[in-house]
Design a protein that fits this description.
Helix 2 (91-107) runs antiparallel to helix 4. This protein has 5 helices and 14 strands. The strands form 3 sheets. Strands 2-3-4-8-7-6-5 form a 7-stranded mixed beta sheet, sandwiched between helices. A 5-stranded antiparallel beta sheet has the order 13-12-11-10-14, with no helix packed on it. A two-stranded antiparallel ribbon has the order 1-9. 23% of the residues lie in helices and 32% in strands. It binds biotin.
Length: 261
């Protein structure tokens, strides 16, 4: 699993079939794998289609932020998911769990989730997930940026203090293809669990990795700053927060977590 060799390019010729339960679209450069996936989904691409690229020129993060990855060192890809109907709201949590389980296999530690779906190792962010869903058209795109072999120097200065990579955590170069293979497999299994209605398993697994529970957090909603204590998630995946006014359930798309203590 771990080696010291140069893994600077994904070997495109071994990407199909062995890597995924659906077709794989590999392109060296794309603006955003999420944008390409949305176009493909609108055009009828099947469930399980994965879009992978080496160099993403306009990678998108949540809430309008940018996602920067180092070409040749990290992983940027998106997966098209269909046929989820009522379970769509738990897809971001399920995707975070798939990332956590894959990271743990390589980093040998327990990664945790900062609601709704940032993946942390030792209080630093190793992966971000952007889910863009069109439930009425019955598709969602799960975009994942996972820092694999970036060094501290490769990480942009403005986020260096809060970001990490599997290399930084382990001291070893990690084989990106192995991570991708494992992660696509875990994503497939979690999507199957959602379809089968095994939401209790997903909620239980998520709660065991909740990085926010018990912490004081700040968030912005409708241009108003708020503070409260994180108390876990409800069964719909909303973040429960206790405030002076009582308990609130925050929806991922509607709040911007601004701080935590
Ligand atoms: C976040 O932490 O704000 C989410 C980051 C999501 C980044 C990934 S990289 C692959 C996919 N394509 C994008 O443009 N964004 C996601």
């Amino acid at each position: 699993m771990r080696d010291q060799t140069d893994k600077s390019t994904l070997r495109t010729h071994i990407v199909p079939a062995a890597f995924s339960h659906g077709p794989v679209v590999f392109s060296r450069t794309l603006d955003s794998t999420n944008d390409t996936s949305k176009e493909l989904a609108n055009g009828g691409a099947v469930d399980g289609t994965a879009v992978i690229c080496e160099d993403q020129s306009s990678g998108k993060g949540r809430q309008g932020r940018e996602w920067i990855a180092t070409p040749g060192l990290d992983l940027t890809f998106s997966l098209i998911v269909r046929e989820l109907s009522d379970q769509m709201n738990l897809l971001p949590l399920a995707a975070a769990l798939a990332v956590c389980e894959s990271c743990d296999r390589f980093a040998g530690s327990t990664s945790r989730i900062k609601w709704p779906n940032d993946v942390w190792i030792s209080e630093s962010k190793v992966a971000g997930i952007l889910v863009e869903a069109r439930p009425r058209s019955d598709w969602a795109v799960v975009g994942i940026g996972l820092n694999i072999n970036s060094t501290k120097e490769n990480i942009p200065a403005e986020i260096r203090g809060q970001a990490t990579s599997l290399l930084i955590e382990t001291g070893y170069q990690v084989d990106r293809e192995e991570v991708l293979r494992l992660l696509l497999g875990r994503l497939h299994e979690f999507v199957m669990a959602l379809r089968a209605g095994r939401t209790a398993d997903i909620l239980h697994a998520y709660r065991s990795r909740d990085a926010l529970i018990g912490r004081t957090i700040g968030w912005e909603a409708d241009h108003v700053q708020n503070r409260g204590r994180a108390e876990g998630i409800d069964d719909a995946g909303n973040l429960l927060v206790s405030t002076a006014e009582g308990q609130l359930a925050l929806k991922a798309g509607e709040v911007h977590l601004s701080e935590m203590e």
